[in-house]
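Example: Periplasmic heavy metal sensor.
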Amino acid sequence: MDFFSSRRVVTVILLILVVLNLVLLGVLWWQNFSPSSPDTGTEQSYSSKKSFFQEELDLTDDQSRKFNALRKEHFRGSIPVFIQIAAQKKQLIREALAEEPDVDVINTLSDHIGRNQAILERRLAWHFHSLARLCTPEQRDSLQLILENVTLKPRITARKVIRKQVTISRPEQDSTEHNPTQQQP
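Written out as structure tokens, the predicted fold is:
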């Protein structure tokens, strides 16, 4: 007599599988439909959490709301410029990889990208100014440190140099640079 051909063994195995399926379905149903769902607790704790700026700058609730509104407005206004830069960079890459790249097209695209980048930098500066206007003098000092850390982060290797008060002066030009026809001794 074969073990699996026994009617009794097959019936017991099927009953065990049915019970396990019912238990599993019950657990899943209980997790999704129980009144004390963990999701509601996390939503409440999330809404009660302080934002990064609110915690770091010790902002009031009103300041925090205004900060968030300014940040949303800034990012919404900057997205079109980012999209334009991305499209221009694609064109620049296509032109650079062409068999015979057109130097004028590359220069024009580079200039357009530079102008758009300058627009972003101006928008960012005015955005920082708007944020600073909401802060107390003590909060402004902390905001300055935060913004310096955020804006300088990608430039890790140059970070130490940039953080120092560095003044860039024009190099003194040799008189021969002004008049190339003049002979040097």
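Residues 37-48, 173-185 have pLDDT under 50 and may be disordered.
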